[in-house]
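The records we work with from here on pair a chain with its fold. A complete example follows; check for yourself that the lines match position by position.
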Amino acid sequence: METTMTLRSEIEKGIAELGMNFSSFGELSGINRGIFSAILNGSPPKPISLNQMEAITRAFGYPEGWMFDLYIEECFYDGKPNRRRVEPFLIRCAELNRTDCIREVLSRLLEDLKHVSMIFDIAENLFTSGKVKESLVFYECVVENEKYNHAERLAISHYRIFRASLGEDNEQNLRVTMRFEPFCGKLPDHHRLDGLLHLSHTYYALGRWTETEIYGNQLHEFSQTVYQLEKQKIRSKSKYIPLETERPLVVYYGQGFLMKETISMERYENFDEAKKYNHGYEDLSWFEGLDEKGFNEVAKFKMYAQANSMNIEILKGNIEVIPSFIEFLDLNPNERLPSLLTLLQSANKHNLYIDNVLDHFHDFLNSYEQIQTQYNKRSKTNRYAKICYELAVYYLDRKDYHAALNNTLRSLEMAIIINNKHMFMKCVPFFEEFRSYASDQQKKTYENLIRSVYQSA
């Protein structure tokens, strides 16, 4: 009990320095005099709760987390962990970024692996209260120490780490996605739906079509299975308790059709099949169990279906839809980035003249700041890098070398930001091939970008 007595000695010293006794300090801290006496003079001393510890800290005027390293011993009074003190202490340490204390407590808890369940509960408490970053050290601890490979909490821990770790870096996203995918099928249904959605979207953003198709198909099939089960519950005589999905169930159902459409449309160019899947989500107002949020999602799907219906025609080289396409994008700015990418890809494939569209959306296409405000990090930068590259190809075909190289440099810059090696390897040979047409400023920009790569390697 040496460190416990040291903590109490520090408290006694602090009280003496204030010139107070137990009674007066009790009034200052809000702790009963009798409790103070039991904490400091009891035989054995009464354990200190976290609330009492923080009340003492505030009364002394010390910063939050004062003596937390010594307070650890209170969590293991008589050598055994006390959950009523351990759990709030670890959560508070996470909030204050006291990783030193967290690792010490976890190390002692893991002397008995039955405490993995408590660590998981702490992680869930933090994650669901919005403290995602703070939860990761606890989920990693569960992943490293869970004995049973099929344990639900192991799968959920992998899922939480996956969701929290996705960002702008493509290589990092690939690593965390591959780490998570073996556990997706072991998740409870509500998490599995969300896991499949994010797996398919992440692999799509990374341009990995095989995996996109695998998880897009799984999302399509599993969402329909879950919906049939939910429909039976709705129609039964008992009170309906909906599945607690992160987003309305109709989102996963509709996204299953949308992913199938995307694969048919973009990977296989099977436009008849793509249209079939488009019809699967264009009007989901019949979907049972919809609430206000669900109906809002149904309206979004109707808009997505309209956008993709035009995108299918554009991919076929049908320029007759372009006036309607421009009008639609003016009314639905959030669809500009994916739809303009589709238009550029089709223009380069079918040698379409689209200067009027590019002039119309000139400010949007040349303002990454504007794009940043409209799209999530993972999708916007990858798509913007692709758009800039397609613009480079488009202008090259028209012998506008200055515009082509400017867009190549912009694409290269985005590729470096998100660590997109595939796009990087497209932009560098492009610039090198047409370097003789580059201005001095363009050459300098290119050299600075390349230098930034090897300096950060």
In short: The two ends are 49 Å apart (CA to CA). The mean pLDDT is 93. Residues 209-234+245-316 form one domain. The CA atoms of residues 214 and 304 lie 22 Å apart.
